[in-house]
Specification:
177 residues; mainly alpha
Length: 177
């Protein structure tokens, strides 16, 4: 198998997860597609150096960094348009129908939109990708204590926005297909 075939196999398998992750980070389908494509393009450019066992982690890091770059550019060049949709974090129920799952995803994206960019990144990396606090800290290049306090603040906002008083253990990694 050539390196190009190897990458193509990886890209096909990684696309859905990268696209969903980008959508959770941005709340916008078009931006999510752009970010996922950017992540795959940059991963392809470095494919010879990427360890195959960590290829998804590498692409995820590229995606998060591309989103951070996009936000920095936006802050210095764009003027915000309208009101932001609501916020994130819903729990998908086993055996739920497609309409229910779509509604859960929409609610999750609305809830996430109510968080700051940093809070959203921490929640997605910690609970969607199921990374440890230390891994999130390394990935975002922030202190572990900052991860903890940011996550605590974000989950408190999510509980208020969701109208529930659940503990942090209820915000776990979900299958958001």
């Amino acid at each position: 198998m050539t390196a190009e075939d190897d990458f193509e196999t990886f890209a096909v398998a990684a696309w859905p997860r990268l696209h969903r992750s980008a959508y959770l980070l941005t709340g916008d389908h078009h931006l999510a597609e752009d970010l996922a494509q950017t992540a795959l393009a940059r991963t392809y450019a470095s494919w010879r150096r990427v360890r195959r066992s960590d290829a998804l982690a590498y692409a995820r890091r590229v995606l998060v960094n591309a989103n951070i770059d996009r936000l920095r550019r936006r802050r210095s060049h764009e003027v915000p348009g309208g009101a932001v949709d609501a916020t994130l974090a819903s729990r998908a129920q086993p055996g739920a129908g497609a309409d229910e799952l779509a509604g859960d995803r929409d609610e999750l994206v609305r809830l996430l939109a109510g968080l700051t960019d940093r809070e959203r990144r921490v929640v997605v990396l910690r609970h969607y990708f199921d990374l440890s606090e230390a891994e999130v800290a390394r990935e975002l290049k922030i202190a572990p204590g900052t991860v903890k306090s940011t996550l605590s603040r974000a989950l408190r906002k999510l509980r208020v926005a969701d109208g529930s008083d659940v503990d942090d253990d209820h915000f776990v990694k979900g299958d958001l297909r």
